[in-house]
């Protein structure tokens, strides 16, 4: 008889389910522990040290209106990244489970469950956890909060070929770069590519969502502060400029910076020095600057909403990323790349994309560009039945894209439409800000700012 290995922690408020699993799981795993709620989850993680947590999606409390499982899945992966989480969900909560997998869960099991399927998934999760060397340690050479690490996909379209030739020339220099393009076109990915191919690649790349910084914290976040500068300034704090010293500073959504703060940013960029809040002496910083926006800065300059001198300062080299509808020949190869990536992530065996699905993907307008395509393929992979993706991708382009219109971006339309998208995303996420931000394709700070803006 094979030696049983693996420690499984079950978190479920249903006593009958816990008893059933206390009988089934010890037949296949070395140790099994069950608890009725997440109230003792942290201590159980510390004391029991499981390989896998089988986590119910709903408990008897009212946290996040039914999204408590999502919350605790995220907490587990943050506290102990090497522990795998398998979500235990009712059929009606499958969409929540899909969202949980996007946040790092290994897989999900639908109740009522099949014993063989449950054991198979838990065994695969145990094996993955056992292979882990330890907690995931962030790469200290790249401070890129919220910035995707996806590889640059160039494709075969003429616009992207021209951009690639430009990047070959500018990447090794310290030229300031302005990247423009619609939401979801990959501006952050291109910024990372420039940094990775620069002479500063061994130094940090610090990304800042400029549009999400509140006005009161703008100077402190970018330029830092000294101890005692304000009530909560208990220690000195290095701002983003100093954190990026020797490397690259990426200012995303630069078009959203209020006019009266643009002068302070311009001064720091021109002098390559910052004066921390509460400080008196300027501190030199050695950075390469990359900025990005989905807004028409020239129009903002004409309207008096963006400083002309700042515009010319950040626009040494301008790269305009084309929308996906202008590079249709790249859609199916991109979808194939995403399918292979998510098949590995979610442990799916997929043969490829069928011709009818490929045609549907190509004909779709993709208003949300690459981000929308990626989201579509991720869902298709998660919900697919091996060995082929087939109709899942086709159907998702036809219906789920309509359902997920909020993922097309917050700033592509006027304020009324933006407010509607925010309200819709928050309603669909049951008030869960992390889930809503994911749907909208923005960071949590950006969504916080929007909620405050519209009084939601």
Radius of gyration: 24 Å
Shape: globular
Query: What is the share of helical residues?
Result: 40-55%
Largest sheet: 5 strands, parallel
Which sequence of strands runs across the widest sheet? 2-1-3-4-5
What does this structure look like?
With 456 residues, the protein is of the alpha/beta class. Helices cover 44% and strands 12% of the residues. It contains 19 helices and twelve strands. The protein has helices spanning 15-24, 41-48, 68-79, 94-102, 115-131, 158-170, 187-196, 218-223, 240-243, 259-271, 297-302, 308-314, 331-345, 355-363, 369-383, 391-403, 415-428, 433-440, 444-453; strands spanning 7-11, 31-35, 52-56, 84-90, 107-111, 177-180, 205-209, 248-252, 273-274, 283-284, 288-293, 317-320. Strands 2-1-3-4-5 form a five-stranded parallel beta sheet, sandwiched between helices. A hairpin with an 8-residue loop joins β9 and β10. The model is unreliable at 61-66, 133-149, 390-395 and 397-414 (pLDDT under 50).
């Amino acid at each position: 008889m094979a030696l049983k290995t693996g420690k499984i922690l079950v978190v479920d408020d249903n006593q009958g389910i816990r008893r059933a699993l206390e009988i089934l799981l010890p037949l296949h795993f070395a140790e099994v522990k069950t608890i009725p709620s997440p109230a003792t989850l942290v201590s159980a993680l510390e004391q029991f040290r499981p390989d896998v947590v089988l986590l119910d999606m709903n408990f008897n409390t009212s946290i996040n209106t039914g999204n408590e499982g999502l919350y605790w899945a995220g907490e587990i992966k943050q506290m102990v990244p090497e522990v795998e989480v398998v979500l235990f969900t009712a059929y009606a909560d499958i969409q929540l489970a899909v969202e949980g997998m996007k946040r790092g869960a290994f897989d999900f099991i639908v109740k009522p469950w099949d014993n063989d399927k449950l054991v198979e998934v838990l065994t695969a999760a145990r094996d993955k956890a056992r292979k882990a060397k330890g907690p995931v340690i962030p790469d200290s050479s790249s401070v890129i909060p919220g910035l995707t690490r996806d590889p640059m996909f160039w494709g075969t379209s003429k616009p992207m070929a021209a951009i690639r030739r430009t990047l070959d020339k500018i990447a090794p220099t310290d030229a300031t770069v302005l990247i423009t393009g619609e939401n979801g076109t990959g501006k952050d990915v291109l910024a990372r590519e420039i940094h990775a191919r620069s002479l500063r690649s061994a130094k940090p790349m610090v990304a800042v969502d400029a549009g999400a910084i509140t006005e009161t914290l703008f100077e402190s976040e970018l330029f830092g502060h000294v101890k005692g500068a304000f009530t909560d300034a208990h220690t000195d704090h290095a701002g983003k400029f100093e954190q990026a010293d020797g490397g690259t500073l990426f200012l995303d959504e630069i078009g959203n910076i209020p006019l009266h703060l643009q002068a302070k940013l311009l001064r720091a960029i021109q002098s390559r020095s910052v004066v921390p809040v509460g400080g008196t002496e300027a501190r030199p910083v050695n950075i390469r600057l990359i900025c990005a926006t989905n807004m028409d800065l020239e129009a903002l300059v004409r309207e008096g909403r963006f400083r002309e001198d700042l515009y010319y300062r950040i626009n040494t080299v301008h790269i305009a990323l084309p929308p996906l509808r202008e590079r249709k020949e790249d859609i199916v190869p991109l979808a194939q790349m995403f399918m292979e990536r998510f098949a590995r992530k979610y442990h799916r065996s997929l043969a490829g994309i069928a011709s009818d699905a490929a045609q549907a993907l190509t004909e779709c307008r993709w208003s949300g560009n690459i981000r929308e395509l990626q989201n579509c393929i991720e869902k298709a992979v998660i919900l697919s039945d091996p060995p082929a993706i087939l109709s899942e991708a086709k159907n998702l382009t036809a219906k789920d894209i309509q359902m997920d219109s909020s993922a097309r971006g917050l700033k592509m339309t006027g304020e009324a439409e933006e407010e509607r998208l925010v309200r819709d995303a928050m309603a669909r996420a049951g008030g869960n800000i992390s889930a809503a931000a994911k749907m909208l394709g923005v960071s949590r700070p950006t969504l916080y700012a929007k909620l405050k803006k519209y009084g939601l």
